Amino acid sequence: MTTELFSKLIRLETLKMVYNTKGSHIGSALSYVDILSILYNEFLEFDPIKPMWDQRDRFILSKGHACSSLYACLAIKGFFSLNELKKYGKNNSNLMNHVSHKVPGIEFSTGSLGHGLPYAVGISKALKINGNKSKVFVLIGDGELAEGSNFEAMLFASHHNLDNLILIIDNNNLQSLTTINQTLNLYPLYDKFKSFGWDFLETDGHNLKLLRKSFNFFSEDLNGKPKVIVCKTIKGKGVSFMENKVSWHYKSPNEKEFKEAIKEIKNA
Questions:
Q1: What is the pLDDT of residue 226?
Q2: Which parts of the chain have pLDDT scores under 70?
Q3: Residue 18 maps to which CATH number?
Q4: How far is residue 223's CA from residue 201's CA, in Å, rounded to a whole number?
Q5: What is the distance between the alpha carbons of residues 158 and 201, in angstroms, rounded to a whole number?
Q6: Residue 264, pLDDT score
Q7: Per-residue CA distances from 67 to 128, 136, 181, 200 (Å)
Q8: What Å distances lie between residue 175 and 77, 112, 141, 182, 232, CA to CA?
Q9: Can you tell me the distance from the alpha carbon of 21 to that of 225, in angstroms, rounded to the nearest whole number?
Q10: Which pLDDT value is given to residue 133?
Q11: pLDDT digits over 179-228, tens only?
Q12: For residues 133 and 2, what is the distance between their CA atoms, to the nearest angstrom?
């Protein structure tokens, strides 16, 4: 399966899940689909038959409210049946509306923001201690950087030379109610991460060629420094009427919007 097709399939399944359960966060989920796609199709070492394989690379989704696209990704990759996606957000389902470690392939339950990076730092340190060469990838939302726990984790990671850690920032410039700048200005990110001793790259989070180049570079660059890739993304990417609209953080598509969105993604 090509990575381009994989992205399309994830978007389609994500839309179905959110529509069927009348759930939220479709904009946030569509924002990082291309990042997920290239990681799981080209970079991560994993075995869907043995989700807890010791030599697996770890992927941690810190913006846990955007779990629908990760569930879709894992189902397509064979961690569990695609039919399970129909249970998303339903009573007694493991496929909760915030990402749950009860789902095969999920490393850590998140949802309360600011926890994913500290957890990933701990896992990275443990792997180093045990001589395990696996890598740890953690994806956070840009609004999540307002949480102080991230900056403590950043200091710890550089102090302990955790070059097996790659942080991915989903930089779509929107959070729950408005823009990043109107909430709490984060910029310039480059200066912040450099001062904390991290290697820094910025790229287009929807350009598979550029994403591939960035992950290739950092996956092989074990120079003693943790890595951060700031991915410039668009909230709601792939559905024109959802793109860059803060309302789709909480809004669920109605029947007409759902059909239009499915058609647009299929024809892309």
A1: 97
A2: 221
A3: 3.40.50.970
A4: 15
A5: 16
A6: 96
A7: 28, 18, 25, 26
A8: 29, 14, 8, 10, 14
A9: 42
A10: 95
A11: 888 888 989 999 999 999 999 999 999 999 999 999 998 877 678 999 99
A12: 27
Asked if 149 and 120 touch (Cβ cutoff 8 Å), the reply is: no
Residue 38: closest CA among 75, 9, 78, 7: 7
**Count, residues in the chain:** 268
| Number of Cβ within a 10 Å radius of residue 224 | 12
Domain ranges, residue 19: 3-267
Burial pattern 238-262, b for ≥16 Cβ within 10 A else e, equals bbeebbebbebbebbbeeebbeebb
Amino acid at 138: V
Strands 227-232 and 165-171: parallel
Q: How many domains does the chain have?
A: 1
CB contact set of 2 (below 8 Å; sequence gap of 6+): none
Q: What is the 3-state secondary structure (H, E, C) of the chain?
A: CCHHHHHHHHHHHHHHHHHHHCCCCHHHHHHCHHHHHHHHHHHCCCCCCCCCCCCCCEEEECCHHHHHHHHHHHHHCCCCCHHHHHHCCCCCCCCCCCCCCCCCCCCCCCCCCCCHHHHHHHHHHHHHHCCCCCCEEEEEEHHHHHCHHHHHHHHHHHHCCCCCEEEEEEECCECCCCEHHHHCCCCCHHHHHHHCCCEEEEEECCCHHHHHHHHHHHHHCCCCCCEEEEEECCCCCCCCCCCCCHHHHCCCCCHHHHHHHHHHHHHC
Cβ atoms 2, 206 nearer than 8 A = no
Give me the amino acid identity at 87: K
Peptide bond into 48 cis (omega under 30): no
161 phi, psi to nearest 5 deg: 55, 50
pLDDT of residue 258: 97
